[in-house]
Amino acid sequence: MALWSGRFEEGVDESAQDFGASLGIDRRMYRQDIAGSIAHAKMLAQQKIIRDEDGRAICQGLKDIEDKIDSGQFVWDEADEDIHMAIESELTREIGEAGGRLHTGRSRNDQVACDLRLYAKELLSRLMEGNCRLRETLLEAARKDLGAVLPGYTHLQHAQPVLFSHHLLAYFWMLARDHSRLARAFEAADANPLGAAALAGTSYPLDRGLTSELLGFSSTMPNSLDAVSDRDYLLDLEYACSVSMMHLSRLCEEIILWSSGEFGFVTLSDGFSTGSSIMPQKKNPDFAELTRGKTGRVVGSLVGLLVTMKGLPLAYNKDLQECKEGAFDAADTLLGCMSCVEGMVRTWKTHPQRMLEQARKGFGAATDVADYLVKKGLPFRRAHEVVGELVLYCERKGVELGELSLEEFRGFSPLFEQDVTKGLDPVGVANARTTYGGTALSSVKLQLQEARQVLARDAVPPGRP
Ligand code: ARG
After folding, report:
1. Which numbered atom of ligand 1 lies nearest the CA of 26?
2. Confidence of residue 2 (pLDDT cuts 50, 70, 90)
3. Of residues 5, 180, 269, 276, which has the active-site annotation?
4. 9 falls in which pLDDT band (50, 70, 90)?
5. 117 C-alpha vs ligand 1 centroid, how far in Å?
6. Phi, psi (deg, nearest 5) at residue 163
7. Which CATH class is domain 361-453?
8. Has 165 been annotated as catalytic?
9. Cα 219 to the chain's mean position, in Å?
10. pLDDT value at position 463?
11. Is 125 noted as a catalytic residue in this protein?
12. Cβ distance 285 to 273 under 8 Å?
């Protein structure tokens, strides 16, 4: 019998019961449900709304249920609609009438909102940890190959040589912004809806500040209608997850390219590759592809929830039950992907020699040759044209700029002197870009230091000094 069955004459249709149930999805919030109920019971006792001994019996009964679930001894009854019903029914079975007093001044509407906020905070903390771990690994990889130079690309065509570390650090900063987005979602979740009851508050003298304090919420939601129907923090979570997945997907796309025969910049470890069932020679970057592929699902959860929310009148509507699955899936997926990408980067073998070989191709020094002429007094537009002609000449001849003689250079401009050939090496070209945020070794070393500081700051969990 459902806990709400009083006004019904007949039981709910079995298929409708299954259709409406969310226990399979929300039972993972049992710790949060129990924590919320314990806080509520303590507050009810403190406010003399229930007797102290009932409050104590409820809290003890709930802790026993938590132990049973933790140890796998709890028997889940699929007839219980959701986690709130499952725990409350068991409590009443175990401690009798006192259990029936727990729900005084509370509704499942504020209960589920409270559980979800606590659970979102938990998920977001784990996501922030995973984000820091991955960034630590990226920093380590950048430090390890400091000095390696590869072609930098625009339009996937060789553009100018860059340090491999600089390239990896670009992902560090994307992930640093992801961390702030996750932290903002955490802040959005960090407000207490409990005490809103079904929608309008309650006539019992609840102390909402006390439940906020007991549950570690940093504020109490000021409007009961908003408290039960707001899911913005899940949208924030899903948005943060979507953007982070998009970043991982871009990195994975590069890993897939870099590990191809054509690029050959990295070799993935056996532990993070798979083979083919027909082609014995194959070693595939499946996990990078899978991460790229899973991005669609996470973005889908964000769009899904936006659409679910857009038509909802105040206050609680059962549609809100649908908001959990996508949010949990988005968080689980990002967590899994971050850990897999971390493993790929930690265990890959890089090939700096091959990177350099490629960096020597494709006229990556052309801008520097133009700048050389500018330094000798030629206007940049004219210099651009001269070097363009030089490149065309090289392409026809099938050589790189570095293979030309001084005479050939001078055939295009008398301003060229012997020293022009010195500035053509990709390492020198990269190291000349000493602007703040540029790719020169000196700038990248500074960047590494800054990244370390940012990571040390982010590694402190929210709520701690
Ligand atoms: N299982 C429900 C949910 O997840 C709990 C709240 C149900 N409230 C109600 N009035 N039907 O949203």
Report:
1. 4
2. confident
3. 276
4. confident
5. 15
6. -75, 140
7. mainly alpha
8. no
9. 25
10. 67
11. no
12. yes
Catalytic residue chosen out of the listed positions 155, 203, 277, 405: 155
Q: What is the pLDDT of residue 423?
A: 83
Q: Decide which of 3.40.50.720, 1.10.150.120, 3.40.50.1100, 1.20.200.10 is the CATH code for 109-155+162-194+229-358.
A: 1.20.200.10
Distance CA 175, CA 194 (A): 33
The one-letter amino acid code at 122 reads E
pLDDT at position 1, please? 66
Tens of pLDDT along 313-350? Answer: 999 999 999 999 999 999 999 999 999 999 999 999 99
Pocket residue to mutate for ligand 1, from 37, 194, 228, 318, most atoms within 8 A of Cβ: 318
User: What number of CA atoms fall less than 13 Å from residue 284's CA on the CB side?
Assistant: 12
CA-closest residue to ligand 1 atom 3 = 321
Cα torsion angle, 237, 240, 245, 246, sign = positive
The tokens of 364 are what? Answer: 């990556």
Nearest CA to ligand 1 atom 2: 321
CA dihedral sign, ordered 408, 409, 411, 417: negative
Q: What count of other Cβ atoms lies within 10 Å of the Cβ of residue 353?
A: 10
* Domain 13-104 and domain 361-453 have a common topology: no
Ligand 1 centroid to 301 CA: how many Å?
20
- The Cα–Cα gap between 164 and 158 comes to 14
Instruction: Tell me the one-letter amino acid at 225.
Output: L
Res 465: pLDDT: 53
In CATH, the number for domain 13-104 is 1.10.275.10
- Look up the pTM and report it: 0.95
Q: Which 8-state DSSP code applies to residue 411?
A: T
Q: Could you give the percent of the chain with pLDDT greater than 70?
A: 99
Q: Which of 321, 322, 325 to mutate to test the pocket of ligand 1 (most atoms within 8 A of CB)?
A: 321
Residue 261 to residue 354: CA distance in whole angstroms: 11
pLDDT tens-digit series, residues 384-400:
999 999 999 999 999 99
**CA 305, 311, 317: angle at the middle one, nearest 5?**
80
User: What is the token pair recorded at 281?
Assistant: 């020679």
Per domain, the residue ranges of the chain are: 13-104, 109-155+162-194+229-358, 361-453
